[in-house]
Amino acid sequence: MSSQRGNLFILSAPSGAGKSSLITALLKRHADMKVSVSHTTRQPRPGEENAVHYHFVSVDEFKRLIDKNDFFEWAQVFENYYGTSKQAIEQQLAAGIDVFLDIDWQGARQVRDLTPDVQTIFIVPPSKSELESRLNNRGQDSAEVIAARMAKAQAEMSHYDEYDYMIINDDFDTALSQLETIVLSQRLKQTNQALVHHTLLANLLQD
Ligand SMILES: Nc1nc2c(ncn2[C@@H]2O[C@H](COP(=O)(O)OP(=O)(O)O)[C@@H](O)[C@H]2O)c(=O)[nH]1
Ligand SMILES: [Mg+2]
């Protein structure tokens, strides 16, 4: 177990900006980073597994969890409920793992209020036409759903200025290394380093 507490990151993006692929690629490189598995009331897409991509629950179950105060944050997004359980993040952070929350701007606001040291990252597509074609190429949703997502993508993007960092996901490898730079540099913050290297510092400062 690391002696340093893990850092908490939020990644937000409009649907189709490539956020999930970036997180997946980053986690492949780093065993000490995890993405939080949210609860949602939306239906699983083909290939999505319960407890891996989301905890898929009914509206009744979701409301029960709200009443039990189990959520760190939750919001209604695209007609469905989404939420991060407290359990999903606390154990990991305590174990020194960096945790990513793939959540929307409403959730980001709640987490910022609760955890001011959270680092927030916003990912945008390189152009509107590229975003459109990415949403179409996914081929898992109806045209109606895609059109609704396109409209909501703009609503999500209008919140870009509430975030600490911004990445333009044009070239995937460039975006990935930019994301990695943000995450790794957080560990080098003096306050984080002082915790990990307290013995060294005590020694260096001793007369
Ligand atoms: N507030 C909040 N938003 C979430 C949570 N989980 C996912 N979301 C957001 O809900 C939106 C829809 O996610 P999803 O159904 O996976 O569709 P996607 O747009 O293809 O990723 C995205 O903006 C996610 O970041 C959560 O636990 N809390
Ligand atoms: Mg998603």
Verbal overview:
The protein has 207 residues and is of the alpha/beta class. It has a single domain, classed as Rossmann fold (3-Layer(aba) Sandwich), CATH 3.40.50. Helix content is 46%, strand content 19%. It has nine helices and nine strands. It has helices at residues 19-29, 59-67, 86-94, 105-114, 128-137, 143-157, 172-187, 190-196, 198-205, and strands at 8-12, 33-35, 39-40, 55-56, 71-77, 80-85, 98-102, 119-124, 165-168. The strands form two sheets. It has a five-stranded parallel sheet, with helices on both faces. It has a four-stranded mixed sheet with strand order 4-3-6-5. Helix 1 packs across helix 7 (172-187) and helix 5 (128-137) packs antiparallel against helix 6 (143-157). The longest helix has 16 residues, at 172-187. It is globular. The mean pLDDT is 93. Bound molecules: guanosine-5'-diphosphate and magnesium ion (MG). Residues 15, 38, 42, 73, 75, 77-78, 82-84, 102-104, 106-107 line the site of guanosine-5'-diphosphate. The site of magnesium ion (MG) has 2 residues, from loops.
What would a concise description of this structure say?
With 207 residues, the protein is of the alpha/beta class. Helices cover 46% and strands 19% of the residues. The strands form 2 sheets. Strands 2-7-1-8-9 form a 5-stranded parallel β-sheet, sandwiched between helices. It has a 4-stranded mixed β-sheet with strand order 4-3-6-5.
